[in-house]
């Protein structure tokens, strides 16, 4: 079998397919696990999501952590570590004269990563903290901000001066 080269149409399609499988498959897997756990008989002593009790959402704090905020916390922490690693690599390569041209590109990428981290990571972290330490009224701002993430990303990345000038 021939290997595809980075940048080729086949490589791009394969990469897109793999990202799609990951980004659709992980939530599907988590949802299936929650549905299976919900449908098990009571004798199995599992932490159930308790979706069908009184509402279509979690009714217990433990199940909320097991099936939602536990995963969100892991993802936010992972993203923080990856962001810090990228920042470290970019800062440590700052003095290398061979990388002068790519430094400018790296600086732009760093700002992009920082904006993404702030828009996506901090809002989810605030949502987790507000759930654990706040009241229902405290959840509203973070839920609204999370609901408007698509608009926020559009405003931050598309409606910027350089794009609007074109």
UniProtKB/TrEMBL annotation:
Example GO biological process: cell surface receptor signaling pathway
GO MF terms, alphabetically ordered: G protein-coupled receptor activity
Localisation: Membrane
Alphabetized InterPro entries for the sequence: GPCR_2-like_7TM, GPCR_2_secretin-like, GPCR_Mth-like
G-protein coupled receptors family 2 profile domain location: 1-161
Superkingdom of origin organism: Eukaryota
Name under which the protein is recorded: G-protein coupled receptors family 2 profile 2 domain-containing protein
Species, as recorded: Cherax quadricarinatus (Australian red claw crayfish)
Upper classification of the organism: Eukaryota, Metazoa, Ecdysozoa, Arthropoda, Crustacea
